[in-house]
Task: inverse folding
């Protein structure tokens, strides 16, 4: 039996990113296999730098000194709280509304809560949402993450004065071959017949 010798493009994606439409387009157009690899925010660029991933869909900000970076779309930040929390009584909140809340996990936007607000050990998005579901504190995450970990015992509301987070595609500057550029074309919406 002959082994599958088709080349594989390995693309990491951070929690909440949605690579499915690009994966479908890739599989319709290209003969190279596409392998999607989930990564955490803490490790989102490590695989690209160590060569275990060819590219990654990351949540900015990341250090891009040695990386190409294409911004793809913005994500709305939301606060997630337990079902009985006062957040559930309003349509949206501001950072002032959260000033006295205990935050169980930092948010990627660059907003820095006070030390009193954030006095928790590091935890995943899923663990943070489980913690607030138990009635302890709140967490601010991108809307895509809140939807991914949606539960019946939590509510989420947009934080109107917090900057959105951005999903971007990154790859090493010294990796710019035809396969890489073909995937860039897919995420940028180029047609099969269009050129770079």
Result:
């Amino acid at each position: 039996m002959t082994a599958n010798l088709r080349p594989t493009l390995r693309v990491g994606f951070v929690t909440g990113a949605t690579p499915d439409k690009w994966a479908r387009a890739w599989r319709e157009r290209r003969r190279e296999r596409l392998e999607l690899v989930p990564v955490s925010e803490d490790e989102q660029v490590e695989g690209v730098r160590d060569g275990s991933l060819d590219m990654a869909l990351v949540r900015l900000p990341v250090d891009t000194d040695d990386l190409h970076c294409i911004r793809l779309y913005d994500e709305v930040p939301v606060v997630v709280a337990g079902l009985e929390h006062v957040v559930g009584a309003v349509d949206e909140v501001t950072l002032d509304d959260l000033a006295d809340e205990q935050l169980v996990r930092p948010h990627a936007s660059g907003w820095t809560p006070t030390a009193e607000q954030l006095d928790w050990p590091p935890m995943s998005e899923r663990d943070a949402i489980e913690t607030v579901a138990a009635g302890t504190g709140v967490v601010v995450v991108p809307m895509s993450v809140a939807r991914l970990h949606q539960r019946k015992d939590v509510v989420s509301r947009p934080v109107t004065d917090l900057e959105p987070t951005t999903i971007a595609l990154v790859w090493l500057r010294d990796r710019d071959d035809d396969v890489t550029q073909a995937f860039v074309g897919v995420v940028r919406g180029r047609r099969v017949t269009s050129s770079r």
User: Anything to note?
Assistant: Strands lie at 8-14, 33-39, 55-59, 67-75, 77-82, 139-142, 154-158, 165-172.
